[in-house]
Structure formats: C-alpha cells, structure tokens
User: Fold these one by one.
Assistant:
Number 1:
Amino acid sequence: MTVSKSLPHDTAREHVTGTARYVDDIPTPAGTLHLAFGQSPVANGKLTSMDLKDVTSAPGVVAVITAQDLPFANDVSPSAHDEPLLADGSVHYVGQPVFLVVADSHLNARKAARLAKISIEEVTPILTIEDALAADSRFEDGPRIYGKGDVDEALKDAPHQVSGSINIGGQEHFYLEGQAAMALPGETGVTIQSSTQHPTEIQHKVAEALGCPFHEVVVEVRRMGGGFGGKESQGNALAVACAIAARATGRACKMRYDRDDDFVITGKRHDCRVDYTVGFDDVGRIVGVDFTQYFRCGWAQDLSLPVADRAMLHADNAYDLPHARITSHRLKTNTQSATAFRGFGGPQGVLGIERVMDHVAHHLGLDPAAVRGINFYASGGSISGQRKVGTTPYGMPVTDSISQELSDALLTSSDYSTRRRAVAEWNAQNEIFKKGIAFSPVKFGISFTLTQLNQAGALVQIYSDGSVLINHGGTEMGQGLFQKVAQVAASTLGVPRDVIRPSATATDKVPNTSATAASSGSDLNGMAVRNACETLIARLRDLLGDPDAIFENGQVTSKGETQTFAELAQTAWAARVSLSATGFYATPDIAWDRIKGEGRPFFYFAYGACVSEVVIDTLTGEYRTLRTDILHDCGTSLNPALDIGQIEGGYVQGAGWLTTEELVWDDTGRLRTHAPSTYKIPACADRPDIFNVSLWDAPNTVDTIYRSKAVGEPPFMHGIATFLALSDAVAACGPTYPNLQAPATTEEVFRAIGRART
Amino acid sequence: MDISFGLNGETVTASVNSGTETLLDFLRETQGLKGTKEGCNEGDCGACSVIMTGPDGTPKAVNSCILMLPQIQGRSIRTVEGISGPDGALHPVQTAMIDYHGSQCGFCTPGFITTMAAAHSNGDTDHDTALAGNLCRCTGYAPIVRAAQSAQDEPIPDWMAQNPISPTPLRSDGAIFCPTSADELADWYRDHPDATLVAGATDVGLWVTKSLANLSPIAFLNHIKDLGDIQDKGDHLRVGATVTIAQLMQAIKPLHDSLHSMFTRYGSPQVRNSATIGGNIANGSPIGDGPPALIALGATLHLRHGATRRDLALEDFFVEYGRQDRLPGEFVEGISIPKDMQNLRCYKLSKRFDQDISAVCGCFWVDQKDGIVTQARLAFGGMAGTPKRASGAEEILNANPLSPETMRRAAQALADDFTPMSDQRASADYRLQAAQGMLVRYGNDLAGADTDIRKVAP
C-alpha cells in the first residue's frame, strides 16, 4: 500500500531543478502592474494630511490609491473587521499601509511609495505589556480565566511554593518566499494567485472589497515557499490590493513584499509574559498552579483570541494538575498585529509549565526529568494503569496519554541518566565551559478550537485513461500534504502513486475550505479525499456488479477476472458512470465552549519528547547545542520521511525561537530587526552536532486517516528542551535559580549566569 | 552599455543603463529564468545563489541579488537551470536532495543546489561552512547536509565544465567607469571624487536594493588587474584592495590560523567570494571583522590620490564614526599584513554563530620576552564608533608577566577604554563584559587552555 511509504515530496524534482513555480514565478500577461504600500512612519496618531503629488508623478506610476478611493469594504481582517487595508483617518503601528502605489515595475512602485509627505498628529503609543495594562488596552472586556479545582486553597496547603515569571519573545515567520499575490481581472470577477494558507478567506476578503458575491472570485494556490501560520491571514492585504488595482486599471496586478517590508508590515508570533505560582510536595508533585498569561496582540485582533485560548489550553502540557487557574490577558498595542505561528499559542503555554517544572526541580534539587515523570497524565496504556484518567483544566479527560511510555523510551535511548551524571562531572571540573542537559515532553491538542473549522472537502476525478486528478481544500506549503493525500488516494483506489496528480488548491473546485492550519491538513483532507475515492470505488463495484471487487496495484479483480484500472475507467466512461466525486469530512465528537472553557476541543493529542544537551561559554554567554534526541508520536505514519522532516525542522525552528531569534522594537515602536542581517533564524551549523529523531510507532486510538496523527505543530515544542538545557547549564554556575528569559540570546545567557552566581 | 557573460554554458548579452541593475533581476525579469529566487534582496539568505566562474576557473557561489551586471562582464554564471544536464539528467546533488528529503517548501532549494554544486565541483566537504550562507526555514538542515555528504564523492558531470570566460573588459560608458588599471582609476577618481567605487558590492549592493539609491557616477573595479593580487614581500603580504576575503583566507591560512578561523564566520561563502578586503576597510564600518584583526597585526594601509601615495597605520585610518582619514578622490590601494605574528587570536561574538554581524569582535596580539610582555595590540570592533585599540588595557599588559592573571587585570581596564553603545545586537553593558571575557579567554588560551567552544564534545 502506498500509505506509510517514505516517498519524497510530491514536487521534489521541481524543487531541485528550479522549475517549481511560486506566485512571483508565474508568467504574467503583458502590461502587468506592480504594487507597493506607502507605510506609516509612526506608531500611533491621526492622519491630518497626505501629500501624494511626488508619488503620483514618480516614474512609472499608474495610480495611487487611498482609503477614500476604495469602492466597498476597506477591511482585510480575518476576524473582527478591525483591520483596514489602507489606514482610514488614523494609524496604529509603524509600517501600517496608508496608501497603495500601482506602477509599471516592482522597483518603481517601491521607489514611489517612499515619496509621500504624510502629516500625522502623533499620540503616545502603547507599546509594551506594561503600557497596555496601565491603559487597560485590551481585546475582550477582561481576562479569560479557565481552571479546575480550588487553586488558592491548594497553594495555601502546599508543602512548597515558588513563584516566577518568564518573558517569552515573539518570532518572525521568515518563510523564505515573502508574501505575494497576483490578480487577473476577468469578464466578471477576478482570479487571484496567492501565497496563502487560506484561499477561501482570500476569496471572501476580495469579494467584500469588490462588492461581489463569493462566486465571482477564484483563488488558486499551487504552493507556498513556507507558511508556518504567517500566511493564514497576512496575505489578505496583498490579494485585496491586487484585486482593487486590477479592477481599477483593467490590468493584471502583482504585489510582493520586499523582505524588510514583510518584516515591518506583517504580524508575528505573539510575545508574552507568563507569571506563575506553584505549590508542590517534597517529590515535586504539583498540587496547584496559578498562571497569568499576558499576550501582546498588536493593533488589530486578527487571530489573537484563539491563539491566546490555545496557550491556555496548553498550560498543562503533559501534566495532570489537580488544581489550576489560567488567566489570560489579550493586550492591544501599537505594534504589528501578532498572528498565527506554528503552535498557535501552544508553545507559549507549554513553555510556561515547563518553566514551572524546571523551577520546582531546581528548588528541590531533584532531577527535572523525574519531577516531570511523576506529574504526567495517567497512561491509557498498561504502565500506569493503576492511576485514573486525568482531566485537563478545561474539563477534557486525557484518555490517550503515552507520555510515560514514550518518555521512558526516550530517556533510555538517549542515555539520559548516564549523560546527566557526565554533565555534572564535567561541570565540577570546568570553570569556563558549563554543560547542561534537559528533557521536555509535549502533548499537543489536535483540532481547530473553533469547532466549525474542522471540516474539509475534496474533488476526485478519474479520467478515461485511468489517470486520477485529486483536489482538496488543503494547501501545500512544504509540509508534504499533497504527497500524503495522494498516497491516501492511491491506497484507497488501489493504484500506483504516479497515477494520481494533486492539483492546485482552488476555491472553484472545492468551496468553503478552512485554512491549512492547526496541523490539520492531512487529518481533514486525507479523510475527505478518501471519502471521495470510496464513492468512486462504490460506483465501479456497482458497475462490476461485485461488492467485493479488489482494487490493488492498478489492477481490478472481480469474479476471477483481472483488468487494469485504466481499462475499467474506460469501460465506466462508456457505460456512462460518473467518474467524478466530491468527498467530505467533519471531525466527530468535538464540542467546545471557549467562554466557559469547557468541553472537548480536541479530537486527540499528539505526543513527543526531547532530550537536548548544550555547552555554554561563561565568559561571553556563547553556546552550542551538542546533541538532541527526539522521540515523536505520529500515530501510524502516513509517510515516515515527511514526518521526520517535520520533526527535525520543527525542532530547529522551535530552538531558534528560544535562542537566536530576537525581535527588538525601539521606544518609538519601530522594529529594529527587520531583515535577516539583524534577525537571526538558525543557520546550518546551529543544528545539533548529534541529532537523533525517531518515530513512536503506534496507531492513533481514534479513527483518523489510517490511524495517523497530525505532525505540523507538535514537534516545534521540542525546541523547549534546548532552552531548558541552557537553563541547566547556567544553573551549574551558581546557587540561585537563573530565571532564564526567552529568547536565550548569548546576552541573556550571560545575564542569567550573573543571576545564578548571586 | 552592453555586457556579455556566460550563462549556463552559452554567451549572453545584457544591456545596462544605470550600472546598478542586479544579476537576479536580469535572470528573472529579462531571461525568464525563475528558478533563482529573491529571499531577502540583501545577500543574507542565499536563495538567489548562483555559481560564478571567473578568470581563475574556480566556480564560486555568489549572491545574485546584490551582484551588479557590470561586475560579471566576461565571467560565467550558472543558475539552477544549468545544474542539471542539457538532456535533463540530474546533478548528483539534485538526486541526493530528492533522495534525502532535502527540500520541503522548495523556495530555498535552488540556492542550496547551486551552492552545493559549487562546493561539489571544488571538492569542498566542509558542508556546514559551505552552506552557512543559505537559510532554510523548513528542514532544520539535517537532511540537506546528509544529501551533501552522500553526493560528495560522485563525479562532477561534464556539463558543469562548460563555462565560457572572456578576458574582454568593459568599456567605460558615460557615468559608468570601468578601469583596467590602478593608474586609470586614480586619475578618474581624483576627478570624480563623489563617485561610488564598486568592488564586491556586498555592502554597496544594499544601497541599491534597500536604500534605492542612485549611484552615479560609478566605477567597477573588478577588471583592475594590479589591485587584485597578493604579493609575498618577505616579512609581510602586500594585499591588493580588490582581493576577496576568500582569496585572503587562503593566503593567511598558514600564517594566522585564528584569523582564518574567524574569517570562516565572516558573512557567508557567497559574501566572502565577492567582498573585498579594500571594501571592508574603506567603508569604515565600526563592526567590520577585518579591521580589528588587521589592526592587531599592525597592518599598514596604502592610500592613493592621483599619483600621490601614502601609507598609514590601519588604526589611524579610522577617525571617528562615519569619518576616515581619506581625502576626496583618494582610495585604498592595498594593505600590508605582517606575516610572523605568533599569538594572534581573533574572537567574534554574534547572536548567531555563522553569518552574523559581530556584536563584539576582539583581536589580540602580544609579544613577550622571558615571559614579560614587550608589546601588546588589543583591537576591538563593536566597542566604539570605529575599530579601536584598547590603550589602557595594553598599558596594563606592557612590562608585566604574560599570564591569565595579568590578562584579567587588563580586562578590567577595558571599562575605561570603551563606552560602547546599545543597539539591537547587544547592550552596552554586555558588549563591555563580553569584551572583558574575550581578554580573559585570550589569557587562558595563551596559557594552553582549551577555549574554543566548537571543540567541546557531547
């Protein structure tokens, strides 16, 4: 069966030969125009006047568009309709699009966009968490609070208690392909090519901007050059701008952000602060924990509410907390509107509790892996079957926990205990270089927390030569979704993989799709495609008059006779049997009330664990990751090679978030790290010297596509182990808990060494 | 003007107006070769990497986004479209990247393929260093390195050798000046002191792609023969201004291992293949990594204005932030680097280990007799508005025993030598304390301790 084979990415050959097309590579019609935004130079204020004469008269400029010129909706928000395409009367962050230049070349558009004279009556911006709290600048009326038990009582009675706080930095997506879109005006409506994870939302926003029904807008996405959540909503502005300009000029219009503009204009991972107070017993068993999460959401709501919700839903990570309270503030600031990023708030929530575990272990002088182990949710399996199934702080029983088994296996395979002793010996003998080792688990909830999004559609067509075209609502951003789903189709139809061709995601083939997000791509679309394939198989079996006909390896065997799949397709066509079918899937059994914080938001959990070892140079705070071992649960993998790719890549991206990737805003709200020269994602040599990744091989307990598990986001959190290893190394420098903050840049590690020594 | 160069084995012509048109735009917009990608437009991500072969016949990875067309006259370019054979046969690095799952989103992949193919052609198996200038956000690099390792022993395909090279220099045209000798440049620049001189364009390129500047008049120095060589003068090397960092690295490897080692973290291979030592000095940046090392070595700078030449100690060239001791129309002709300088150590501190701009760069040299310091040169980048020596710390070393203890005392004195600034790379406090840490490290290093974190094993 094609499923479970380690096939390469479906367009790997196109990647390596440079023939894979991204939006900016698609041949353009003659006369295509190029767009650029003029941007706000200040973080907060009222627009008093805009002198655009020099922009209009700049070489190559065809049109300049402001908010007043927009015919219909001026909104590119994915949620609260609070995000104008072009600033209307006021500006809310440095970089906000204020006007739109339409020119004959990308360069001329960029040059002209800098020539405006914009007058703004400045207002003191709200930039930091503290600013926002002082001004009570927030989304929603007040904090959201989820919890269970009686935390205050539990803390009062706890044998030990510690409190602390961790600042957690944001993260720029740094997809290698920047945001890009192109609009081709049609007789009616418009066709959009967009680098987006959410073609349907692009369709909706463009239709609203053009004042037309959704059916007049077609959005197509063959692939993205990376998404990571950064193309869930952030592509709206470019696509809408292109549509507006195409409508105004009658010509094809293309827009792509220069990298610096991409940094300055678009949203990033939410930075936040997590305060905690935890009570625990002598062996580190937690009796109660009180979290307060402060999320800096930026100027518009975007996806901040579900992001902050997910942080709350992951404040327990893999641990059964008898009493817990999670208070979440969603703060509105004059900065880029923070948005989706791999993990969608989950990583911040997980880092909060992992920090607590680290702090507890340090306080008690215990092995942090042991402290974690005794707090795990009881296993669904046999090992800790004597403990009863735990319940999350939001009331969902955790019936599928494998944290204990998986962690035991990893701690053994990575030789954790021996190496932990070796690290201690090294540290006793070395003054300058200190080593650290850490273990961290992840339990990640799979499903969109907005329940209605957990649906997917598919279109599968068998042609009369037996070739098969599949289409579904999921988008390909490098994760290998198209290959996995094609493998599902091949397995279901019993044909070789090369008979199947996945086609570009398009809103006129499969309507009303959800974003490819929340790690859900193969879970949802794999099921929808299988459903369509099963419909087709049923029709073919009907034709054969044989409900037991066997479809295998491109052959169909029925009543003792075998023919090729292609022959049967030809026969079916001649017999006037429809060879085109839609498929559909809706995730069962989930229900969630985000206001009450109760229900079953997730269909299941994905698990994993990581052990990481680092060395730091106490003279400068420099460090290297020496070794990382990961064991990760993908259920029954649809494609082990692609899954391992997600795990390796997710880990490195997660480690980057917590180490070298530092976003710095100055006190006027200007982002100072707006290019790869100043914002440092991991480079080749930053991966661990020794890097072992294995899959936990066991089927999902719930009925997912071939019992596989989602893999996009969960491995991102393995980077936390590297952060904790740095904390462990720093802790070897002195008696005090180092209180390491994120990202742990060389400077932060250096400062933490100073704190440890006090 | 028109330029001609080799492109995937054929000779092509390109018309040039301002002189600042980039190779990347030419490939994508004029030639329709969309395989080469724009990732950052500033030479920091490697998505636009192509292979350039020049007169020395060695294929080198370069960033096409900040390579201006006049720079490639007569050279040969190979893009991702030219890495597979004319009949579509894959290059071994392409096959390996498929087999080892080295691409996910695929956008960085063409840049990786060209960089890997260049390294493959040169027999370079230090993959981490060869790939330091290519960013990938999906894979975490492990499968890419596995692919590079698996392909490294495969034969180089025949078609990779078809790189037409022409010795014809560009003819100057209007405000675009293309001298072929230092004499020509000297006369012209004396008469056009406001002109921009372009050698590697790894910095000037960003004035074009990011500041959107108009650089006219402009001179391209890459066809000047007598600025591009390294001469062994017995006790020193005389290095021409347009010698690239990559070329300089080869020359200094047997002489100054620590400097060579630091230079493996200078930009990326793509940047080092283009950037020149003259440019690194002349642009006067307080955070360039070349000057602190060359100051510690006591290098002498050779300046020229028309027919007039003068020499000065490199450290005296840097007057204050944004100002150098250079007359209008005067240019850096070369630099003399002493050869026999034991004890040089170069330490670079940056947020990311590879391809990052230093927060602090410390380069130190001491001489001693019978264990007593007779001379010390402690130079720092990132600690002041210019690359600068730590005179107070040097004072403490002089005439004292060369020991970790003395070095620790010298480190304390840095607090009086420097008042560094805070920016997005590092705070002032940290810069000072890390600089002090570097001096302590230097003391330990000279005393025989292991001080290189890269050598710590798991």
Number 2:
Amino acid sequence: MSALGMEGSEEAQTPSGEALSLPWDRFSSWLHCICVVGFDLELGQTVEAMYPSHAKLTDKEKTSICYLSFPDSNSGCLGDTQFCFRFRQSTGRKSSLHCVLDQVDRDSPVYLKKDPSCFYGYVYFRQVRDKTLKRGYFQKSLVLISKLPYINFFHTVVKQIAPEYFERNDPCLEAACSDIDRWPAPVPGKTLHLPIMGLVVKVRIPTKHDKPGTTQLVDMTQQTDAHISVALPTIHEVDLFRCFSPVFFHIQLLWELVLLGEPLVVMAPSPSQSSETVLALVGCISPLKYCSDFRPYFTIHDSEFKEYTTRTQAPPSVIFGVTNPFFAKTLQHWPHIIRIGDVKLAGDVPKQVKVKKLKTLKTLDSKPGVYSSYKPYLNKDEEIIKQLQKGIQQKRPTEAQNAILRRHFLELTQSFIIPLERYVASLMPLLKSISAWKSPPQPKPFSQEEFMKTLEKTGPQLTSRLKGDWIGLYRHFLRSPNFDGWFRSRRKEMMQKLEALQLEALCNEDLLIWVQKHTEVESVDLVLKLKNKLAFAQREHLPVGVDTLQKLQGQVDTIIQELPEDLREILLKTNSS
Amino acid sequence: MALRELKVCLLGDTGVGKSSIVWRFVEDSFDPNINPTIGASFMTKTVQYQNELHKFLIWDTAGQERFRALAPMYYRGSTAAIIAYDITKEETFSTLKNWVKELRQHGPPNIVVAIAGNKCDLNDVREVLEKDAKDYADSINAVFVETSAKNAININELFLEISKRIPSANTSATSGKGFKLRRHSSETEQRCC
C-alpha cells in the first residue's frame, strides 16, 4: 500500500494550516445561524434554540422567522415539508462582511451574490401526530438562515441535519455546526467537498466567468452510495420543469412578466410549492438578475404585508408566493396571479388552457391557472411546448425535461440581452481618449432611440426564431427595475475598466520627468492623487494587474524620495494611515 | 485506475486516541494536547491498494457520552469501523465490546470491523493483555492490531488490513460473470474450445 499523500486544497480538513480563522468565521461564511422554531401553546411559534448562541437577530427578525418557518395553519402539511423563505433584515444592522467574503462575492455571478438586504431561510418542517404532547402533534422546524441564495445546496444540507435533529436533539446541532465551521469558504470556481453529519456533499460554486448553461460539477468517483457522498449538479437551480408544469402553456407569458418586473403573485396549496414556483420564476431569466423584491413564501404576518397589499397605490414590482386563502381576497386587484392546484400525478398530460380573465378570480376555490389581462409581446413558442408534451407522453426523465426548458429560457434571455450588451459596449469611450493626466472619460449615456436603431440589423432575430413585437418588449423593459439593475452593474464595470485603463496609462508615463518640470506643490498634489487612486484600485478591486499597481507604487515612492526631507516624512506618514 | 470512496468511522471511549490515530494516518503528526472532538471530525486520505485507489472518508466520532446517540449517522454506509481502546484502561475494552454489539445489531451487514489497541507505547501500565484482545477479535472475525499514534506504530498497517478485507470492485464484477458462465456451462465451454 502506498500513500498518495494529502488531498488537494479542496478538502475541508487542515485545521493546522488554517489557524488564521477564528472559531465561527468559517461557519459565518456560509450561514448566519441555525434556528429551531417550535410551537408553544401559550406563546404560539417561538425560536426555541439558536446556534451559534452568540448570533444576533433582532426581535423583528425573530418574529419573521417564527411565522415564516411554519406552514399556514390551513394547509395541513402532515409529515415532513421543505421550503424556503426570504425576509428583509432589520435596518441598522451592520453589514459585517468578512474580508475573505468580499473576495468570494466579487467573482460570483450577479444572481449568486450575497443578498445585501435580505436573509434566506431554508426550512425543514415536521408535523406528526404525537399523543404524548398536549397539542396532540409534534410540530417543529429547523431553519438555516443565510445570505447566500444556494437554494438547492441548503435544501440538501437541511435535509441531512433536520431529521437527525428531531430524533437525537441538541448534540446533533452541535455536531452540525462544528462540521460547517470546518468547511472552506464558498470560493467561486472551486469544487468543494463538504462533510455534514456522516455525509459528504460535493458542490462546485459557480463563477461569473462560467459559460451559462454548462455543467457545473464533474464527479470522478465510481460508486454512489447516498449514505457516503452526494454530488450536486447545481447549488442554486430549481427544477424548472417540475415547477412550471402546472402552468407550462404560459411559460412565454410568465418569462415576459418576470423580465419586465411585473407584480406577480403565486397562490399555492403549500409553502413548498409556493416557494419553488417563485424561485423558478426568478431563475427563468438567468443569467439576468431579477432585481426587484421576491418572497418565495409570504404570510399575513410579514412586516411588509401592509406595504405590499395596500390598495392606495399600484401593486409594487415584486413576486411573492402565498398559501393563505385570505390573500385571494386581499390581492384581488393584482394584475397577474398564478394559481397552483394540488400536485398532479406524474405522466398526466395537461390540457391546453387559456389565460383566465382576472374578473373570474374571486373565491378561494377558483381553478388553477394563470389569471392576467397581459398580452405577451412575443408569440408563443409552440415548438418548446410540443417538445415538452412529447416528453411527458414518452415519460422522458424529469431531469431531461428540466434541461430542455432551462436551455429554452437561457436562449430566449440571451437573444434578448445580447443586442443590449452590444449596444452598451459601444458606449465605451475610445482607448485614445484616455490620458494619464486627465480623469478617465465617462461612458456615453444610454439613448433609447440609438439603441432601437441597432435592432434593425443586429436585433434578437439573429439568434431567436420567435416572432412578435420585440421592439415593444424592449421599450417596456427599458422602464423596468431589471433594466435599471442590469445597466447599473454594466456601467459600474465600464467605469472600473476606464479607471483601470487610466492607471495603466499613468503607469507608462515617466513621472519623475514630470516632477522635475513642475513645482513642489504640484508634485505633492500628484503624490496624494496617486495614493488615492491606488487605494481606490485595491478597495474596488479594479481589473488591473498587480504588476501595474506595484510599478505605480514604485513611482510614488521614487517621487517622494525626490522631495525635501520635511515633506518626505509627512507624505510617508499619509502612506501608513 | 478506479477511485473508490470508502466510508470509515472511528468508534470508542473518550480519550483512547481516535483522533490521534487519524492524525497520524492522514498528517503523520501527533499532538498530545488535542481537543475533545465535537460530533465528529472528517478527514480523507487516498491510498493505492493493488490496482485500485481507496479514498478513505474518515469520520472520527466524539467519544464523549453526550454524542453517543449520533454514532449511527457515521457508521451508516460505512465500509469499515475502527473501534479503538486504550491498552492501559480495562474499561475502554468493555466499551469496545458494546460498540461491537451495536454494530452487529444496527450497523451495515458486511461492515469490516477493525480493533485498535492504542497507546501500546505505554506497555508498563498495560491493563489489557494483547492475547485476550486478539482472541476476542478472532472470535468476531475482526482485524486486530495494537497501535501507537504517538510513536507511529501500526497505523498504516491498520488501514492496510482494512483495504485487504474490502472486496475489490473488479473481483465482484468478474465473479458475477463467472456465475453466469457456470449456468450456461456447456454452451460456453464448446465456444471456448
């Protein structure tokens, strides 16, 4: 037997080499905390336990977690249920981002970045008859609270922890937390092997450089025993086909509604259906980021309930999922409603159905379907519908159906976004306009008319066979929060690129010659400006090479040495501050 | 070369040196002031055995009583269990026997059991005779070695013995074929000749 030595850095094992991280540092790069929510006969739902015990949640946040961790009483979920919710974090909470995490977040795709204003809750709820309890039922939820939208991954993790916890109590959570606290940080592009309570979960964290739609994880090992290890093909994607199957004749319409940030509510019989449908909707415009608020599971106790359901103003741009029948009345005025009935049997071929008029949605027992008076800009893609229907008849595996649908959405979104990307790239100033001695030029402003003109020759018709009013769709999109969010991040990237190019231009100048031709005051001014630029480059992670930064720093140091001693000292001091 | 993942759990009383055995095997180091394990710690090491790569996924469980109930999560799906005791403490050997019973009742049916009598460098204060432990191990068809994580005695051997007892993935495939051949023996024989 010959030892092959240590495993690669992918492993979560070398505590010796990683002595730099404090206890719970690693844990907090994945989770904020783990909560146990139970039912108290006098108090109602309460947070019974929280790990780690020093984790901070405001009372308001705790209340949100309590209500959102239990299904609405009417839905009568017996047995085990899993779902996900999202809630706003209290204002005034310090964003205590670990420095490592900034690095982590920077290389994440936009739709996988940490949520700056919200927490996700990944719930495992158990409700079983128990005569020994006063209430007659055992009702408890184990909830993972995190800022990371790794839906599929945390779904797997909570499923591993919760059933054991319900059987074996507190030592179980201690063990789980101790496991998680030894995980390596979620660094984009890395394949991680994450041990959790006897199971190894293998995942790959996507990066923003990944080609959308490519396979994310390749597992090299032969055997797959579900008790030993599990390789997740994706950390965040939900099964689009399963989620959309109750409404799959309307996928075109739904894609447009999500793209345009229209107010949309999903009424479902259970929190698991409501949350996965909302997540599927938000994910169907990937790689575009859905920029408005969304709540996979929303209850009447939510702190935003009044804000979102008021009739005094137009419904906000938000997607939420509800199960409480009360909403059918409260949200009657909403422009777009998806009603999902109880899950159909597999292999059942849904019949062609029309979009229903909103007027008909009055009562709780309204039929499942999409209620909206929206008329899609694009024609329906009959081919994808036929392809999926054929799949159902032929009992094609749901993974394959999901892959087909996912590719369809991806191609559609890309066809839509490529002309915008191309136009925005043309807003970048010419390279020759960048000067070492002037602040970088601004990108040209976005002109709707200029953009529309480009569509004639280089519009979506180049990549999509879908006909319809693309122009109308773009006009509408340009007014939507999703455009705003997308353009902001593109503009930021351009500004950073321009800053970086200017730094490079500076770097290629002989600053010493400049200094010799200028006054002392001007030299000092230059040094201070350069220092600011260097600090900015590091803080904002400008896309500029380390060698450029080093060379520039070297130039700054040389200039300082040229100055009289008294000035030199002052400038060196500002260096250290 | 085929890579096989083999789940291995370490069981045994608190303080017998389970974590030290794993550290010696994986890192080839020893720390006398190691902290008690919480829940279980996890490490991996890949070794070559004949024409296969054995990747040991090692779950080193906590010996403390309050974590006792968690053990099934770690021996579930395990190919092998290493049960360790301290040769200088008689009672740790009794605990070992209880683990064997639990594994027989609730563990995976074909789990390879390996018994490690650790701290064999402390022969002067020995309480458990090597022969007694060996006889017991033989009676339950378990691997047996006395080890010292501190002095690096018999640690690699322990895992080698486990590797030896694991049926090769290829053999099981071939034996399946062999079975088939025997069933249609006459026909096959004619074709072969």
